[in-house]
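Changelog-linked ticket: zinc ion example.
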Amino acid sequence: MKAALAERTPLRVIGTYEGEADGPTVIVTGAMHGNEPAGVLALETVLETLHSRRMAFRGRLVAVVGNRSALRHRRRYLARDLNRRWEPDLLMRLRRADHRRLHDEDREQRQLLDLFEPYLAAAKEPVVFLDLHSTSGHGAPFVCMADVIRNRKIAFDLGIPVVLGLEETIRGSMLGYLCDLGHIGVAVEGGQHDDPRTVAHHCAAVWSVLGSAGAVALDAVPDYPALKQKLCAAIDELPSVIEITHRHVCVEGDGFVMQPGYTNFQPVAAGERVARDHAGDIRAPMNGIMMLPRYQGQGEDGYFVARPVRSLWLRLSAHLRRIGADRVLRSMPGVTRHPDRSDHFLVDRRFARLRALELFHLLGYRRAQPEGDRLVFSRRRPDEYGPEPLPPLDEDFPTPLTPARGR
Ligand SMILES: [Zn+2]
């Protein structure tokens, strides 16, 4: 029996398992946020089962700790959120930097990159990434995915609510970056940080993803039906798919405090006072579903509002993408293709106010960045492009990084 995590810090690679048969590469990360130990505990449990039973396996599983130094201190992060700034320019700088001079999350991120790179470089089919998280508030487990079709099977097989659009609202998430390279990535929010059920939920999620990816036969997994039942126990009447419609952004020192008692999936009404900060009351801007209310000191996401997505919409969006309907966008009034980037559209703001935005969502264009009087819409790398190799190191690239903290 392993000691509790409070007394030890697991290695970066918690463990691996490889089958004799060829198959998918599945990389699972736990504790990307250091105050979320449940994913690490779940990975240890799954690996123990795989090894002790010498289970048949196709491909390989790599189980990884996200933020080791923050896990040691049981903090979400030390200098910055490790699940942000997975952006090509920063990553290029990290790859070029002398790793001995990197600190805190820069060092963590570099070590993760060094670990992932050989798998990404060798990938002939998309690598499957599963990122295990937990939340400060209570509520049912759910899965977040970037809105590309290749993520759907793995996410929907989990049997818990699927959240669309979170990956696109948060800039620089790890899965967003990997998805932009053409890989598969879903993040599971398994429950409250210290709730013991969260570990069981994560175990069920890891097995489910291994099963969906074709790495294990789920009927060979001991107690899988019971684990899956636990994962899905709290689902009840929750919508099976929701999309994010609002994100409240916090800044350091703004005094953000959530009103007590909110849980994930709780209905909120437009105008309802949900939080406060130094500027006064913060009210929900629309009717919807409360997601990820922040009951911890750190983090730039105060709370999110979401709304249900109908299954017809999902089928329609899959069909439209299959037939390449995004060609139609070019011929719409107020819409032009970006001169340099084929997967970006420039949209006149007057047009963007219309419900036509829904069409962009249907086609997977969920990121909208303001640029002058226009919005630039973009999407994650679509399925038909396949995985993309990492860019070669560019010798002319500057190397400034996050300054080291005083120590
Ligand atoms: Zn997290």
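Closing comment: Example verified and attached. The chain has three domains: 5-232, 247-308, 311-378. Residues 202 and 291 are 19 Å apart (CA to CA).
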